Request: fold
Amino acid sequence: MRKLLFPLTAAVLIAAPASAALKVGTAAPDFTTTGAVGGKEFKLHLSDQLKKGPVVLYFFPKAFTSGCTAEAHAFSESIGDFKKAGAQVIGMSADNLKTLHDFSTKECRSAFPVATATPEIQKAYDVAWAAHPGITTRTSYVIGKSGKVVMVHDDLDFSEHVARTLAAVKALK
Reply:
């Protein structure tokens, strides 16, 4: 058991979410959803994004919570390194589009898109948090240009997600 890193309710103790179902080497499920970057709405189709290069697809539990805000800041501060390595970063949560519009500018600093993780996407990527319906686990995937998962990091502690995904992207070169 460990303490929740973002406040859903006071002093909530939870078990860590189960490991992500997608294993390294498996095909990442394709999807289309809506999102925002710099406060502007757009349609996101994973296969279109993969044509540009590897994708870091990171799921976060809830916009504007302390851990998710810190993680968004960390990704935005490192976006130049991801771009230099040829990768795109896409944040995903079950938050509604209006919330993601605000989060994309205020916390993601318009550096990368955030998109809605529909229930179908949550199921496909095994990130639906059973203990907290309507919230995703904190799980990061690196998906190679081929569409195969090359790295998975599933941990509520946001602190290693940026470093681990960036290392995995750099290892693809």
Summary: Helices lie at 46-50, 66-77, 79-84, 97-106, 119-124, 161-171.
